[in-house]
Amino acid sequence: MKKKRTSITDIANTLQVTPSTVSRALNGGGKVSEKKRLEIISLAKKLGYRPNPIAKSLLENRTNTIGLIIPEFTHHFYSRMLSGIESVTSKAGYQLLICTSNEDQNQEIKSIHTLLDARVDGIIATISKMNDKFEHLQEVMDNDTPLVLVDRFSEEIETPYVISDDFKGAFSAVDHLCQIGCRKIMHIKGPDNLSTTFNRFMGYKEALRKHEIELDERLILEGSNPDLVEKIKSCLENNWVDGAFAYSDYLAFEIYKAASQLTIPIPGQLSVIGYADEPISTYINPTLSTVNQQPFEMGVTGAKYLLNKINDPEIALEIKNLETKLVIRESCRRLEG
Amino acid sequence: MKKKRTSITDIANTLQVTPSTVSRALNGGGKVSEKKRLEIISLAKKLGYRPNPIAKSLLENRTNTIGLIIPEFTHHFYSRMLSGIESVTSKAGYQLLICTSNEDQNQEIKSIHTLLDARVDGIIATISKMNDKFEHLQEVMDNDTPLVLVDRFSEEIETPYVISDDFKGAFSAVDHLCQIGCRKIMHIKGPDNLSTTFNRFMGYKEALRKHEIELDERLILEGSNPDLVEKIKSCLENNWVDGAFAYSDYLAFEIYKAASQLTIPIPGQLSVIGYADEPISTYINPTLSTVNQQPFEMGVTGAKYLLNKINDPEIALEIKNLETKLVIRESCRRLEG
DNA sequence: TAGTTTAGGTCAAACGTTTGACCAATATAC
DNA sequence: GTATATTGGTCAAACGTTTGACCTAAACTA
Question: In order of start, what are the domains of chain A with their CATH numbers?
């Protein structure tokens, strides 16, 4: 059995006053003589009194706790986002109750209920990749529990969100490739049906259009293709390619693999840009240029939006399409002549 | 203002019974007719009644919440550990309240107090690297709050812990290098004053001893050395080395860098083993052999120990020196003749 | 002097839930 | 027909805290 901690009533009893007086002495609500106040405070200190937030929560109908749902912990992007969130919430005196969904919507629904049951003051969630149900999110809003979506959002739900600007991110990468002289730029696409895949592809196309480069269908490859490396190799062998933009850093490494097998030097003959700025990008040889999505800032912004909404439920809808940062490393070099 | 959720009293009032009856109908404490029971249950369902855990916590002096302190989220090791912990605690119906210490002991002390204030039922903590104070940990124990240390432990505190067997991990790596024919094995040491650094070094020495290889002081390098790569290169150039074991995967990459600059082939002329099994190990070229510390299992075991202690505070001290797993990849090859 | 203010408290309700003690009516035992 | 057990409930306390309403005595006002 856990030890009972000293309560306001304990102090009241030993000092022959009422709990009310103790409460007011400790919280400064007046109505207590200087003498008693000091007496109470010193006894409280001596007994190591710490207010019980549970009792306060029950009374005030708030828990100073924020619920968090993320797909998984082990993805670097989410870890960074989590850090960003934590940095804001801890400073504001909130605690973090964390659940994972493992990209499974049923798990996500369960987590939402767990958090609502726990009476969190607000929820920050990254909804799972494949989502077709929204009742649970609607339930959160019907409950007047502020909700902020991060990284992914849904048009069905009108609530603040922060996502990354995939279009601009992709555009900036391909634009850079063009500026350093690439004219034959390959793109490796992400998983089907994901808005990120679509938006990055659109950014790619827009950059080509800006530089008046005609789109070459042969250079658009599917990342999910089982013999992707072979496909890439055939493009490289035919000398169709002088630059490449991949949906992710990991797909960019497939390009590395193909180039290495053909002993095509990067960046000598081929400039490559990935996406996400995984830590590995700086360790691989050559270090990989990539698009940083600023996950920390995403977390910070999402957390701020949530606090804003907690403090003022009637606040105007805050949404943000976060700027990305193009990080140029060794894998890109200006083409000579 | 957040909406008031329907309480047991609401149900009691509309049904003209007392809260006690409702409570017993819902929790099955008998003393309620079948007819009323069904009536109550159906109304509860209709109103979407969900018990308020705050009230229960106040009464039962337990929160069904476990506090967690980790140095940082963005380290892959801790993410995996976190996953392991979460997998156990969520199944057991506990929630996770998470704090970070950023390897700063003062932050750690603050976090401990936050968690104690929140009345968590137990705490799992990875104490910060440099620690010289233990009052806060002692405070946890004085409070009868079960505490489990993971990844790092302290001899000053008698509480369950789970750590990784660095000695055996290092031993297995160097033993493997010997078995594939290496006789001139370099070691790159970790940060000073860390027990992990010491233990891995001891494992290295023990493996050499087993294979009757004399220790060559020239091959022991400090990872913190600013011109580490140059030092490595000079060893390689002099042909003093045919194998290498590094304190971490990242230090192993420094060996890669040196070898690459001298165009010494890995694993053709040099076998390399790192430590930690960072995800990057499988993407680097050649893929890196390494020692996996099983962080997920560490989390699982730590969480189980905590639950055991929560359920039986008088349980015998559980501690574990977790086995590591040697993962052999391309960076190791048997030396020919 | 009578009336009013002020300082320094106390009292009780409220938050939502559980649970031991109690009670009345009915059913059973002998 | 009386004693006892069972059924189906109610009551009130408890968890720790806050807070508006109330109270009393002393001090001030006119």
Answer: 8-51 (1.10.260.40), 60-159 (3.40.50.2300), 166-293 (3.40.50.2300)
